[in-house]
Amino acid sequence: MIPFFLRQGGPKRIAVALSGGVDSSVVAYLMQQHLLRYNRNREDGSSHDAQQHELIAVHMSNWTTSDEEDPFCTHEQDWKDAQAVASCLHLPIHPTSFAADYWTQVFEPFTEGVQAGSRPNPDVDCNRYIKFGALRDYVHTTLKADILATGHYARLWDRSSAGSTTGGDDENGSDCDIPYQYNSLVEQMLQEDTNAPHWIRSWGDSKGATLSPLLLAARDRSKCQSFFLSSVPGNAFRNVVFPLGDLLKKKNSPTSDSNSELTVRDIAIAAELPTASKKDSMGICFIGKRPGGFTEFIDQYFSTTETQPYQFVDIDTGAIVENEFGPSTSCHMVYTGGQRAKISGASKPWFVVQTNRDDHTILVCQGTHHPALYTDTFYVRDLSWMAGDLPNPLQQPSTIFHQQGLSSTNTAAITTVTSPPVLHAQCRVRNLQPLVPCQVVYDAAANVYEIKTQKPLRAITPGQHCAIYVGTEGLVCLGGGTIVERGPTYHELNQELDVSNLHPAGHNDLSVLVPKSKVSSHT
After folding, report:
1. 225 & 313 share domain
2. For the residues 350-368, what does the mean pLDDT come to?
3. Do both 128 and 176 map to the same domain?
């Protein structure tokens, strides 16, 4: 099938972001196949265009090892692999680096946030400021490319084409289904979902400009990267394509129609791409996974050195946690809420609730489902909405209620109660975490969003990223923002925690699948 953007507006220059991994390699191969088919049709007389489309590759490196001895950085091998793929497909490849942008816009804010006790997500910022900021600008201005294709597992809905056909025959009578518009997919969702957000069709039209693309979840939900893309403004997705959005990464995916369907890895093998057997990259974006662990790596970038050790304090008793050697201490402040604390000789595992820099204490609790680890309310500031506007439900005026009652002097009185507009949606605070229904309320004066979830969430920490979705199985990603504060925990509210109603911390978290019971805030 020939993508719609190759059949509209004349010949295009298309740039593929070629990282050296299998996903981007398959994107380059698929785009080349689309161009070959287009050119064959042109030669057969089905196209009157005298020119051909052009395909190029661009490889970026954003981490410099000049300031450290770093045998674990994979950039050199990635560059060699990208060159090998480009050579295999006979594509010109353009190397570039945004190391300075990455340092100032992604890594430096990340380390500053960690040192301040929050947990920023560098992969979210990398997509917003580098891949669909600096790289996109470079591709369009320097390389003069019309289209940027990347290996992200997500889909983009071009709402400017809504109402037009999403399939049919091309000029030669062959199948030319349009895989990058998804009008029919969204319309089916709107018809089948009783709480469908029909307003997404025109969301953002108050700006008076062409409607921006909206981000959709990938077909393969086990690989979906919409969480990491949720803070990218919708306008930055113009002239961007995600060719892997409808493909499966591996066999036996829940969304697979049959085991005979070709996966991304199958395509790489069949095309004999040099990266067909290469393992997926892990760790922080452009930095990778470090053998010494995150703490050892990040310590070297702190602006000051912590000299006073942190003491572990039992949140239930307020006592310093003892082990066989005396008071338990840690020389590191880099602990994430919910993480298992490194306390030697403990009869039961301890888990971190929060780190207090003022008094150098780390509050800990025993039990992975301790009420101190759970809350159902948190707050997000500066949430980036995909369409550039508040979602339509949040644009509605507040509802004013008048309640009759008695005053303090037992005389009749009327109390005015204002109910702010509410967005009923779904959210996640960790990549691939199952979506949880939530209510979003906007405080315009403080520019803060209150997110209240249907089920308690574990280890909500300031700095974490929250992505907001609507539609069946979270098909449409509305945007995302940074958590600035968590609400009170069940321990702080002195409320019981229903273990049977907990929400998994991640897609592979089976720890909540336990017999129904009640956990007291005092246990």
Report:
1. no
2. 90
3. yes
